[in-house]
Write a structure and sequence with these properties.
three-stranded antiparallel β-sheet; alpha+beta; globular
């Protein structure tokens, strides 16, 4: 089974113009970038991606934040191999 990691640059990353720097980081690590796209998270995608916290009291705030603007999606089959700690997001509210 092939594992894939979905790297998401969240709305504030796009607003702060960090996409190029983040992509450069991956290229410097010799990771192939096969595809990427910009889109807004739908309710269905958000609930699936953050399924472990949908019932938490902070989920509505997380949902509002993640849907506040477009996200940059970078699916990768190599990220987990290169960075073993790369895995499910530990979604917690930001103070």
């Amino acid at each position: 089974m092939n594992e894939h990691t979905l790297i998401i640059i969240k709305p504030d990353g796009l607003q702060r113009h960090l996409v190029g720097k983040i992509l450069q980081y991956f290229e410097d690590a010799n990771l192939n970038i096969d595809q990427c796209y910009i889109d807004t998270m739908t309710d269905d995608v958000l609930r699936a991606h953050y399924s472990q916290v949908v019932d938490k009291p902070f989920f509505p705030e997380l949902k509002t934040y993640m849907q506040s603007g477009p996200c940059f999606f970078l699916p990768s089959s190599a990220a987990k191999t290169r960075w073993p700690g790369c895995g499910p997001s530990k979604a917690t509210p930001t103070p």
